[in-house]
Amino acid sequence: MKILIVEDEPKLASYIQKGLEEQAYEVQLAYDGLMGKHLACSTYFDVIIMDVNLPKMNGFDLANALRGEKVKTPILMLTALGTTEDKLAGFDAGADDYLVKPFEFRELLARIRALYKRSSEGPIKNGVLKIADLELNLDDKTVQRAGRKLELTAKEFSLLEYLIRNKGRVVSRVDIAEKVWDLHFDTGTNVIDVYVNFLRKKVDKSFPTKLIHTVVGMGYIMKED
User: Fold this and answer.
1) 68, 96, 122: which is the final residue of a domain?
2) What tens digit of pLDDT does each residue of 153-177 get?
3) CA nearest 212: which of 156, 151, 157, 203?
């Protein structure tokens, strides 16, 4: 899981970062709202944790700005402001959950896992799957990257959907065969590799950041390079 922490208190940010990295999560820090916005809009994250009282742009404005930029990443707000009005303001701005300081790290971890599970297994907001600047629209079956429309066959679309839904996880050729082709994998065929190469040429070839990676002897993983 890749997590962005937007927190202007260095000690608290470091404490959260250390705890999450001990859980094998990848963590990036931003110490003000504007830097948080830049990172959230330019890099894929699974969860964003943000304070409300941030310099340059407060958490309410930041959450609202991210939703305005179509960033769908789950947002958990951390704040000392614990009134019902404050929580409602956070939810209205686009936050998905709200945790009041001081808090136990175990509770923070549970909230993060719940948000991640909800976003990865629940309904896709607006029918769109996204990683980095790549978007796959499940409603009209279109794909675009960095605003450029990509023409995919039906099978390439299904393969890309499966890879995005499993972003950050290595999927084997057997997994792909069963989930995308609905057949038992024949070790004598290279059809999976052929289609992955087709997809790479359309999704990655013309873009500096590569998203589809080979894990030798294991399969493929979709993640930012």
Assistant:
1) 122
2) 888 998 999 999 888 889 888 888 8
3) 203
